[in-house]
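Subject: design request, 110 residues
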C-alpha cells in the first residue's frame, strides 16, 4: 500500500473553528481535514477571496492526508488559481464561509 501524502495548511483561528462547527451541524465527517476536502470537491468558485484576517503567527495548522489522485487534483486547483497549496486551501475555506454568510443575509432580507 502506498503511503498517503500529507498536506499542511494554516488557517485563521476563526476559520479553524468554523470548519468543525459546520461539519458537526451538517453531519459531515467532523475532522477539519475532511471538511476541507469536502469543500475542495463540492465548492467551485469562479474567484477566490483572500483571508486578510490570517496571520501566520496565530494560524491554526491542519494536516490532510491525501492519495495520489487527490494530491494531483489539489495541485491542479492550485495551478488554476496560481497559489501555493496552503494558500489555496486557506482561501477556499475563507471563500466558502463568506459565501455561506452572504446566502444567509440574502435569505434574511428576502
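Subject: RE: design request

Done. Sequence follows.
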Amino acid at each position: 500500500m502506498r503511503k498517503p501524502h500529507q498536506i499542511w495548511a494554516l488557517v485563521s483561528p476563526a476559520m479553524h473553528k468554523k470548519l468543525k462547527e459546520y461539519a458537526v451541524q451538517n453531519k459531515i465527517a467532523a475532522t477539519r481535514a475532511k471538511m476541507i476536502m469536502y469543500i475542495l470537491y463540492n465548492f467551485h468558485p469562479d474567484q477566490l477571496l483572500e483571508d486578510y484576517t490570517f496571520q501566520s503567527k496565530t494560524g491554526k495548522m491542519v494536516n490532510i492526508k491525501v492519495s495520489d489522485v487527490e494530491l494531483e487534483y489539489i495541485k491542479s486547483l492550485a495551478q488554476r488559481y496560481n497559489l501555493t497549496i496552503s494558500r489555496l486551501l486557506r482561501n477556499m475555506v475563507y471563500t466558502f464561509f463568506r459565501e455561506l454568510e452572504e446566502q444567509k443575509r440574502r435569505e434574511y432580507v428576502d
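The helical segments are 13-25, 32-42, 68-81, 85-109.
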